[in-house]
Design a protein that fits this description.
Elements: H1 29-35, H2 38-60, H3 78-81, E1 82-89, E2 99-108, E3 114-120, E4 126-130, E5 137-138, E6 142-152, E7 166-172, E8 177-183, H4 187-200, H5 231-238
Antiparallel strand pairs: 1-2, 2-6, 3-5, 3-7, 4-6, 7-8
């Protein structure tokens, strides 16, 4: 049979059973403290007082100043701090019609030194180099005047309508090496166009306007006697 009745505790109080409680007989802190010798108690009190004093001193110390945050300054790109200014021709094209000397003033405004090299002037038929041959380095805040020799090497690679305002250079500093093209206005396009025209489309020499002396049919005397009269002239005179 099964039935439902009141739930009784497993360990009924009527059984008169006792149970061991873990830690019930452990001496309390006060009892243990009193059981220590006076010397040990003085040492513990002194250590506790010393620790409390040290903690109080540390708590009231002024905070250390924080180290200044270092700001990383990135080096500029060489093309961003370098400017070119055209100052004119160094010589006329009369002595070398396929080559010209062009002067520039180069300034580096900030950052590390910049080393430059001229490589071209736009179309493939034009070459450029610094004259005399060198690779100058320009410090920040300074201006260097250079002479660039531009030469016409292949007229077929220079289109008739090509824009002649460029100078191609290589710029290098501690951050990067850049291939950069500067664009000029003013006299530079005119001077470069004159160089190309002299080399690729020379003007033919104009014919001389001085009159030429006409040949005359005057008889010439010789040591062998009177001059011979042409047959046609003699025939006319005998009629």
């Amino acid at each position: 049979m099964t039935g439902i009745g009141p739930i009784e505790p497993v360990n009924s109080a009527d059984t008169q059973e006792t149970y061991e409680v873990i830690g019930a007989d452990t001496p309390r802190f006060r009892d243990r403290w009193q059981a220590q010798s006076p010397r040990v108690r003085r040492a513990v009190v002194g250590a506790t007082a010393l620790g409390a004093t040290a903690a109080a001193v540390i708590a009231f110390l002024p905070p250390e100043p924080s180290a200044p945050t270092r700001t990383l300054v990135r080096m500029p790109w060489p093309a961003n701090v370098t400017t070119f200014r055209y100052t004119g021709l160094a010589a006329t094209f009369d002595s070398a019609p396929a080559s010209g000397l062009f002067r520039f003033a180069v300034t580096v405004h900030s950052g590390p030194p910049v080393t430059l090299r001229a490589t071209g002037a736009g179309p493939d038929g034009l070459t450029a180099r610094i004259s005399p041959a060198q690779t100058p380095t320009i410090n920040a805040g300074t201006t260097l005047r250079i002479t660039v020799q531009i030469s016409v090497t292949d007229c077929a690679n220079i289109p008739l309508g090509a824009d002649r305002t460029f100078l191609d250079v290589t710029l290098r500093n501690t951050r990067a090496i850049q291939q950069h093209r500067f664009i000029f206005g003013g006299a530079y396009p005119d001077d470069l166009s004159e160089l190309v025209n002299r080399a690729c489309h020379p003007v033919p020499p104009r014919p001389s306007t001085r009159p030429q002396a006409e040949a005359t049919g005057l008889p010439q005397f010789s040591e062998y006697g009177p001059p011979r009269i042409p047959a046609k002239v003699a025939e006319i005179s005998l009629r």
